[in-house]
Amino acid sequence: MSADPLAPTGLVPEGWRSVADQLYANAAARPESPALVCVDDGRALSWGALGACARRLAGFLAASGLGPNDRVVVLGDNSIEWLILYYGIQAYGATFCTVNVEVNARHAREMLARMDPKLVLFEASLDTEALGYGAPGAWIAYGRHDDAAAGGLFAMLAALPADDSAPPPAPVNGPEDRCVISFTSGTESAPKGVLHDFCNYYAIAEHQRDRWSLTAEDRILDVRSFSWASAHMLSLNPVLLAGATLLFARGFSRSRFFAWLRAHRPTVVVAVPTVVNMLLERRGENEAAGAFAGVRFLSCSTAPLAPDRHLLFEEVYGVPLVQLYGMSEGGVVCANRPETRRIGSVGAPGMYQDLAIRGPDGEALGPGEDGDIETVSAQHAHAYLHADGTLEPIRGRPLRTGDIGRIGEDGFVTVTGRAKDVIIRGGVNIAPLEIDNALTACPGVAEAAAVGIPDAVWGEEVCAFVAFKPGAAADVEEVRAHCAATLPPAKAPKHFVVVEALPKNANGKLDRNALRVMWEAEAR
Questions:
Q1: Using CA atoms, how far apart are residues 493 and 480, in angstroms rounded to an integer?
Q2: What is the pLDDT of residues 93-120, one digit of tens each?
Q3: Residue 95 three-state SS
Q4: Is the preceding peptide bond at 8 cis, omega within 30 degrees of 0?
Q5: Domain map (residue ranges) of the chain
Q6: Are 448 and 501 in contact (CB under 8 A)?
Q7: pLDDT (tens digit, 9 = 90+) per residue, 450-500?
Q8: Does 422-523 match 17-174 at the fold level?
């Protein structure tokens, strides 16, 4: 394993608690309460049973010689078993490492070599040869926790002696040891590895519990892939800290979603703009009637959501929609509270987030001025893990998020675009998100996005990619007229390209680079 040269930062939240302390406290306080429920098949695990699994896993990891910062890779889709390993490995105090085996299949060998794990635990159905079976680390299929006949790790754990009356095992980690290594959902090159410490993940969970007023009575439904850090931050870790219940599926299903709501009665639903748009564009007659009963709010993050879509969703489904803004290495940068949400804003800066808006020369900008969003925070990850195994510190210094935004007099933040996506027309910076919102407000438009394309006179000109709703009567000229009426002339698109759908990455984020490539191919 590469040496870790990074010194502790001292940015440890007051009252920090280990994963072991949180897990075993929940197991003692509410042993019969459900901790994990798979809405696909109804399999569930109580807090008491999860604590018992973690005890056995701790014995196995100790016997295997693992210590703090030793890395255990877990390869598989969302499942009860995956979650037992997520909580159990961290409760022991080792480092849980995750890879999205579907999206990052072509990078998997390199990513595994970069992490240099001592142990790789995998779902038996995976094509492990394609993922690099055998190197590095010892490879073990993990099987099923409730079926010893399936073999694998859980069958081995079931055979171990256990004394549940003994005190829970003490964790081997400290607050600034590594708890998770995850990867970003990059689309241009190999994804970035991000090393998270136990203390920064705790700070994020504490923020979410506070901002969403979570209690042990909450039931959080999250059907996104657990291989992304966003799921850890918004559901897995807050559920642990609050002693709540996590409802999950292997993935989102439009056809089964409302049945899940009715059968399992979540109080919070975690979603992304793609899910919101799917629910709006394919509305069934009366299928949603009463389905959101008991749901306090639905969260939306990972990508911007146009205000008109936000308003329409609340009108159609009668449930508040709450936006937030985060990043793998930066934690939850901003978030709304359900009771004080601002439509069009990602909310106020998060707990422990010292946020500033910076101008082109690094100067601090005032309220209402657009600039680079920068934070210093105890929520920040420890470091980047580069492909050559070297580490680049993150926490303890200013982090430029790569986003452009403004903060209002009321303290609420609005994200207006990505710094790399800013269109520079005649020396004037144009945030494409403003144009996106104008485009999607046009009747008949399902989704749309603007990018800058080369122009001999202006340097860059605005080009709009538009996908129309099925059967819509609208055409490009109507959209052009709508933009001319709602945008300043410099921002109104001069070129239009009609597409069936906008390209997105694995997390449902718009891929503007792909749009530029499409334009270049069309312009040849």
A1: 7
A2: 999 999 887 766 667 888 898 999 999 9
A3: strand
A4: no
A5: 17-174, 246-381+394-419, 422-523
A6: no
A7: 999 998 878 889 999 999 998 887 789 999 999 999 998 989 999 999 999
A8: no
Place of tokens 């889709």: 77
Q: What is the mean pLDDT of the chain?
A: 91
pTM of the model: 0.86
CA–centroid distance for 326 within its chain: 8
**Edge to edge, what strands does the sheet with 71-75 contain?**
138-141, 119-122, 71-75, 95-98, 178-183, 193-197, 383-385, 391-393
CATH topology (fold) of 17-174:
Rossmann fold (3.40.50)
Which residue type does 108 have? A
As to burial, measured by CB atoms within 10 angstroms (0-12 exposed, 13-18 middle, 19+ buried), residue 373 is buried
Two structure tokens written together for 35: 């901790």
Confidence of residue 192 (pLDDT cuts 50, 70, 90): confident
466, HSE (Cβ side, Cα atoms, 13 Å): 31
Task: Read off the tokens for 68.
Answer: 């703090």
Distance (Å) of CA 141 to CA 2, 17, 151, 382? 26, 31, 8, 30
Cα distance between residue 365 and residue 386, in whole Å: 32
Query: Is the domain covering 422-523 a CATH 3.40.50.720 domain?
Result: no
Contacts within 8 Å (CB) and 24+ apart, 479-484: 479/439, 479/442, 479/444, 479/445, 479/448, 482/438, 482/439, 482/441, 482/442, 483/435, 483/438, 483/439, 483/442
Environment class of 346 (CB within 10 Å of its CB; exposed 0-12, middle 13-18, buried 19+): buried
Any idea how long the chain is?
A: 524
Q: What is the residue type of 171?
A: P
- Report the candidate in 71, 97, 100, 73 with the shortest Cα–Cα distance to residue 4: 71
Give the neighbor-by-neighbor strand order of the sheet with 445-455: 445-455, 459-468, 495-498
Place of tokens 């494409």: 432
Q: Measured between alpha carbons, how far is 80 from 349 in angstroms, rounded to an integer?
A: 33
Which CATH number among 3.40.50.12780, 3.90.70.10, 1.10.10.10, 3.20.20.70 corresponds to the domain 246-381+394-419? 3.40.50.12780
Tell me how crowded residue 290 is: count the other CB atoms within 10 A of its CB. 11
